[in-house]
Design a protein that fits this description.
CATH architecture: 2-Layer Sandwich
CATH topology: HIT family, subunit A
Oligomer: single chain
Shape: globular
Number of helices: 3
Largest sheet: 5 strands, antiparallel
Radius of gyration: 17 Å
Number of domains: 1
Structural class: alpha+beta
Number of strands: 5
């Protein structure tokens, strides 16, 4: 995997405003926040996208993500938030190291704004079967 800014942050070569760290996970404030308290949660394992991350690292992130989200809400006074995770350039990924954004939604309206162009599910049974088969493979 190519070197990223997150690799340098993990090694301590670039400073960050750390909010959490253990053997497998690091969380720190985003330097270009969408809203006050915008926090990044990253596995220390270098993987460019979520589908390339090991089960162990994914589980480590999953164990701490709710705890960090509660802390961000408590510290900022926000009551609502988004968790955002992008994979690939077309999905708006800019740093190719898995990372989760915790983005508080404040009363002033700051936070993530998204549109949701909902479609229809035409082939649900067949698609679900294909996904189940891929999981078992």
């Amino acid at each position: 995997m190519a070197e990223t800014i997150f690799s340098k942050i993990i090694r301590g070569e670039i400073p960050c405003h750390k909010v959490y760290e253990d053997e497998q996970v690091l969380a720190f404030l985003d330097i270009n926040p969408v809203s006050r308290g915008h926090t990044l949660v990253i596995p220390k394992e270098p993987a460019p996208t979520l589908d390339r991350l090991s089960d162990d690292s994914a589980a480590a992130v999953g164990r701490v993500l709710p705890r960090i989200a509660r802390a961000v809400l408590s510290a900022t006074g926000a009551e609502h938030f988004n968790v955002l995770q992008n994979n690939g350039v077309p999905a708006h990924q800019a740093v190719f190291h898995v990372h989760f954004h915790i983005i508080p939604k404040h009363a002033d309206g700051s936070g993530l704004g998204i549109g949701w162009p909902a479609g229809t599910l035409d082939d649900g049974a067949a698609l679900a079967a294909s996904i189940r088969e891929a999981i078992d493979a």
